[in-house]
Structure formats: structure tokens, C-alpha cells
Amino acid sequence: MRTFTAACVRCGHTTGYPAYRCPACASPLALDLAPVAAADCRPTTGRGVWRYAGLLPRVRHAVTLGEGETPLLPLRHGGAATHVKLESVNPSLSFKDRAMALAASAALDHGLTGLVLASTGNAAVSAASYAAAAGLRCRVFCATGSNAGNKLETARAHGAEVELVAGHYSDAYAAAIRAEGQAWLNVTTTYRNPLLTEAYRPIAAELVDDLGGVPDAVVVPVGAGPLLRGIWLGFTDLVAAGLITSVPRMVGVQAEACAPLARAWGAGYRGREEWAASLRQPIEVGPTAAAAIADALRGYEDEGLLTLDAVRRSGGRISAVDEPAIAEAGRHLARQGLFVEPAAAAALAALHDLAVAGPGRADTCVAVLTGHGAKEPSTLTAGSAR
Ligand SMILES: [Zn+2]
Fold first, then answer.
1. How many angstroms is it from 221 CA to the middle of ligand 1?
2. Within a 10 A sphere around the Cβ of 133, how many other Cβ atoms?
3. Where in the chain is the domain with CATH 3.40.50.1100?
4. How much distance in Å is there from the Cα of 28 to the middle of ligand 1?
5. pLDDT tens digits along 227-272
6. Cα-to-centroid distance, 174 and ligand 1 (Å)
7. Can you tell me the distance from the alpha carbon of 331 to that of 317, in angstroms, rounded to the nearest whole number?
8. Class of domain 96-194
9. 275: CA distance to ligand 1 center in Å?
10. Which of 80, 104, 194, 255 could form a disulfide bond with 288, CB atoms 3.0-4.6 angstroms apart?
11. Residue 185: beta bridge partners?
12. What is the CATH number of domain 72-92+196-384?
């Protein structure tokens, strides 16, 4: 495991962990991890997310419910060699379990009372289950606009205290910040807590092991986007360790109905501050089935810069897909035996564009299927009726 410091992404000021913002300039923090050697990138005898413990920041506890090591399957889809990474089969049916295993372990390390977070649903279920496994309390703030009914019932079943906040996700985000502090680790799954992003590094190692090499592109549904950045960081580890020579193009996908990152990306890169200004422009948010990635970033716009930075440095891009394309991708996956939530189907919808478009065509693509459809089956059956 790797020693680390928390450092401001803007001014470089370092601070101890847990911390959520730079004490000097209030920008987001990122963890600066010690470098890895090739041996650190190999699987260990650990279970779950700890199987690639050498890639992770150092914690003393190792909470697990068997997350990670998710299957990679070939998929019949157009002409490209397409694969899907089934993050939907994690213990609470989404990729967030990787982050919560690490976060719950860190909370125990620091003697904290529990986990607190804002969530549209998936993270609430994940945090609640890992808090229960670790003997921690869990508080969930969910916006009334998030329509997360079934997921919140599951979180309550795990013993979480659920509070509804009038408004949108950003309102719940602010409530979680007010609750974070000495006793409560804020595990809101944006970039608020810099530890969470690190839990996704092993996905890169798993992909290289399963494919026997580096894919040309990895397509990831993104709200704020720590999953995409974490996977990219994992590939940069493997390059630094000399195990691979290039990173895949990282492709972020948003629903057109809520696509601040795709809009900023479309404006082109003229520098960090220009992108920050683009993200701060008000964005119209429409209805979308892909609620899990509908994040307008209101009040924490600068967090989006971390995702844009990873995409740019990987040579990738950020796409937006419309609702009919998301619904069709979901049906396509269902007909091949894979039942995923609309946010996950968005990855396949974007992958279609990627495979057929001329410049930037990718030959070996991985679509990360971020969450299972079982928690909101009506979104898919509603699509089937059309
Ligand atoms: Zn700073």
C-alpha cells in the first residue's frame, strides 16, 4: 500500500487527511500517492478491492463485502471488439462499492463515528451496506428531485438514517458538507473526499490482466467523474511501473439532459481557468432516465476540472447521448442477458458513436457498466413499450 499526502489541485498546498478542501484557496484536493513498482501492480492474496492493495492508499483496516474483480465480457455490438466491465455485479450492484470499502476502512482508521453523504441512490445503498459491515453509522441526504425511492428503502434496511432535502442533488451535497466533520467522514461520491477516487485504480489492472493488454478506449458514464479519473490514474500507475507503454483514451459519457462536462469539453481547451468559467455557467437540466449521472455540479464546479484533465491527458473526449439512444442501448444489453441502469447503458450508447465515427475510431473498447438495473427496473420496461 502507498503512503500519501492530500494536496490542492490548484495551488499545491498540502494538508492532512481527512480533509475536503484546500485550506489556502478552497479548491478540491487530490491525493498524492507514493510511486509504484511492477510488483505493486500484481494481484495479492487479499479479497475484494484489497486484491490490488499495492495500488491503493495506505489504510490499516480492510473492510470488504467481496467488491471488485468484476467480470469483463465480450459483447456483440457493431464491428469493433467491444467489451463490457460489469461493475453492476458488485455487492450493492454498483461501482461505488469499491470506494466505500476503502472509505469505511479509512473511517475506522481515524476512529470516526460513521459515513455521511449526498446521494441519488446508488452511493446511499453502497455506503449504508459498507457502514453496516464495518460497524459504522451512516447518514444519507437525498434530494427530493432524485426519485431514489427503492434505493433509499435498501439504505434504511442497512440501518442508515435517510434525510430528504428539498431541491436537487446539489442541495443534498450542501447538506452533507454541513454534517461532515470530526465524527463523520463525508463519502459523497463526487471529488469531495479525495480518497474515494483512488479506489478505482485497480480497475485498470483488472482490465489489462483480462485483455492481456491495453484497450484503445475505456468508456465511462460520468456525473462529476471520479470513476473515470481513478481508472485513468490506475493506467498511469501501470505505465510508471513499466508494465504497459500507453494509456487508453478515456471517454466520459453524460446524458444530454444534464451535460456540463460535455459542454465544457465541446468548447475546447484554452486553459484551466477557461474551463472553470465554462463549468460555472448555469446549465439547463432536463429530465433523464440516467439519474445516476445527472450532476449539474452546482456549487462545486471546479471538481469537474479533475475529470476534464484526465480525459484531455488521455487523448479521449466527453460525449453526450440522448434519451432514445440510452433506452435503445439498455434494451440491446437486456437482450444479451445484461440488465443495467440507464446511466450504465449510456456507456454503450456512446460506444456506438465511437466505433462508427471516422477519426478517433477505437478498435478495442471497454464500456464500464456502472450499475445494475434491478434497483430501478421500471426505467427499462418503460423504454420497451415504445
Ligand atoms: Zn489551494
1. 28
2. 16
3. 72-92+196-384, 96-194
4. 8
5. 999 999 999 999 999 999 999 999 999 999 999 999 999 999 999 9
6. 20
7. 25
8. alpha beta
9. 17
10. 255
11. 115
12. 3.40.50.1100
